[in-house]
Write a structure and sequence with these properties.
This protein is mainly beta. It has 5 helices and 45 strands. It folds into 4 domains: about 55 residues, no CATH class; about 90 residues, Immunoglobulins (Immunoglobulin-like); about 220 residues, no CATH class; about 150 residues, Porin (Beta Barrel), CATH 2.40.160.20.
């Protein structure tokens, strides 16, 4: 039927048995006739753009009108709502006039009363309740209307937006009557240019506020509205049941049951149950349950449950549970639980299930061999993780941890020299390397590194810059030997240029003099060709 009619059905899937075998032949029949036959007349149907909405409604109501006349400046309509099968009066049924945007709930006796002001000549009274088919009664008003008055447009939205009322914020800020009203009216949404609220239960549109989309929404403390196409401002908080387009601002938090296409600004917290296209900015936390296209900025934590295309900037933590295509920047750590295409930059930790970009952080983890990881420690699937013990011309023993992959790995290193009647040397540094396979057992490992040398005092900056050109031969699984030449540049500079030169260390000079290719010209810089030899494990 969807294919033939070029529309989609929208319904709560748990109400329809998925394992039922049905066989229906229909020729020259309407969609309603086929659905009634298929669903045993237990549903009612509403049209929306591109959708036919199925609402479970096996029961039926009737409206018993009691009062329908003018009282002062108001047109008063009252009566009772009754279950047609049991003949019992129905509590908490929603009764609304869609043109005046006024509504009420029936009391325990099923009684309602609506006081309408400035209504049209025809009053369109609609009654709806969960599990009951909606009914509409047309009444003719005796009130004369002015030329140019306009009716309010209403439509049905195919989405399910009740989840916002089940959150902790929804349970605390939204009254039970408003929740019942939203449950009864479902996806009905009306348009109004302006609405204002003190709190959700005190507003210009009463309980209909959650069914109204306005161009300008002002919530002095906070409000619960149907949607916004324009501007919404609140002193403390905005709760929007459906979609927001344009700008939403609040002193504490914004939470939206649909999608946001525009900008959300909050002092503490922004939350979107649908998708975000635009900007989220808050002091502490931004959350998107759907996908994000745009920019998230917060002081502590950004979260996207599905895919992200854009930028996340957080003081502590960014998470994307779907695929990420863009940039993540955080002070502590970033998480990409699916494919990451782009750049991750964190002060401490980055994680990507599948990396197609670059990671910058102290520790980087990815579940794929692709991409580039730049940090002190990098752990990748089928990666390059080695521990080496070597000796060279100035250090009697050196330890290195190499992590990354064959195309690029990082190096953490430390060295030590200590002999009787000789100065001591302690070194530590970082570097980058590449593993080029030359055969099943042989590989070439060009490496560059920078090391700080401690030679007995801290009055000097002693730095060694190395290019190692080592070859590695695997003896057996997990054990290899390596060795090769190196080129070295050594710089020794006094920390305080105004202090007297008290450098008496000749350790490096004594060990490298015979290899020198760059002599000290008085600027504290020398260079030489060296060597290294050692053992590689894992």
């Amino acid at each position: 039927m969807e294919k033939k009619g070029s529309f989609r059905f929208a319904y709560y899937s748990k109400l329809v048995s998925k394992d039922s075998l049905v066989s229906i032949h229909a020729d020259q029949s309407t969609v309603k006739e086929v659905l009634d036959q298929l669903l045993n007349n237990h549903y009612e149907y509403k049209e929306s753009t591109g959708f036919v909405i199925l609402r479970y409604a096996p029961l039926e109501l009737s409206l018993e009108l009691e009062k329908n006349n003018i009282v002062g400046e108001y047109y008063v309509v009252s009566g009772y709502i009754v279950d047609t099968k049991t003949n019992k009066r129905v509590e908490n049924a929603s009764v609304y006039e869609k043109n005046a945007l006024q509504s009420t709930l029936t009391n325990k006796e099923g009684y309602f009363e609506l006081k309408l002001k400035n209504v049209q000549q025809t009053i369109e009274l609609t009654v709806t309740k969960e599990k009951y088919k909606s009914i509409t009664m047309m009444l003719l008003s005796e009130i004369k209307i002015q030329m140019g008055s306009r009716q309010t447009k209403s439509h049905y939205d195919a989405g399910d937006y009740t989840q916002i009322e089940r959150t902790g914020i929804g349970r605390f800020f939204i009254s039970s009557k408003q929740k019942i009203q939203s449950l009864n009216l479902g996806g009905l949404i009306s348009q109004a240019p302006v609405q204002a609220s003190l709190i959700p239960s005190l507003s210009t549109r009463g309980m209909m506020n959650s069914q109204i989309s306005s161009s300008f929404s002002l919530n002095v403390l906070g409000g619960y509205t149907g949607g916004v196409r324009g501007l919404e401002i609140a002193g403390l908080y905005n709760i929007t049941r459906m979609n927001v387009e344009a700008l939403q601002m609040a002193g504490i938090f914004n939470t939206v049951g649909g999608s946001v296409n525009g900008v959300q600004l909050a002092g503490i917290y922004n939350n979107v149950f649908g998708d975000l296209k635009g900007l989220q900015m808050s002091g502490i936390h931004n959350s998107v349950k759907g996908s994000q296209i745009g920019l998230q900025i917060t002081g502590i934590y950004n979260n996207v449950q599905q895919d992200s295309k854009g930028i996340q900037i957080a003081g502590i933590h960014n998470t994307v549970n779907g695929s990420q295509n863009g940039l993540q920047i955080s002070g502590i750590y970033n998480i990409g639980n699916q494919k990451v295409r782009g750049l991750q930059i964190a002060g401490l930790f980055n994680y990507a299930k599948e990396l197609k970009g670059i990671q910058f952080g102290l520790v980087n983890v990815t579940g794929s061999p692709s991409g580039y990881s730049l940090g002190l420690l990098n752990f990748k699937k089928d990666g390059y993780q080695k521990f080496t013990i070597t000796r060279n011309e100035i250090s009697d023993i050196n330890f290195s941890i190499k992590t990354g992959d064959n195309k690029l790995y990082t190096i953490l290193m430390a060295g030590r020299s200590e002999r009787r009647n000789e100065e001591k040397l302690t070194s530590f540094g970082i570097g980058l390397g590449k593993n080029i396979r030359l055969g099943n057992r042989l590989a070439y490992n060009p490496e560059i590194s920078a090391q700080y040398l401690y030679l007995g005092n801290c009055d000097y900056y002693n730095f060694l810059y190395k290019f190692d050109s080592a070859f590695t031969f695997r003896l057996f699984k997990g054990v290899a030997i390596s060795g090769g030449p190196s080129f070295n540049i050594y710089s020794s500079q006094l920390r305080d240029k105004n202090a007297p030169d008290t450098n008496t260390s000749t350790f490096v000079q004594n060990r490298t003099e015979r290899y020198n290719v760059i002599k000290d010209n008085g600027k504290g810089i020398t260079g030489w060709v060296g060597w290294s030899f050692g053992l590689t494990l894992f």
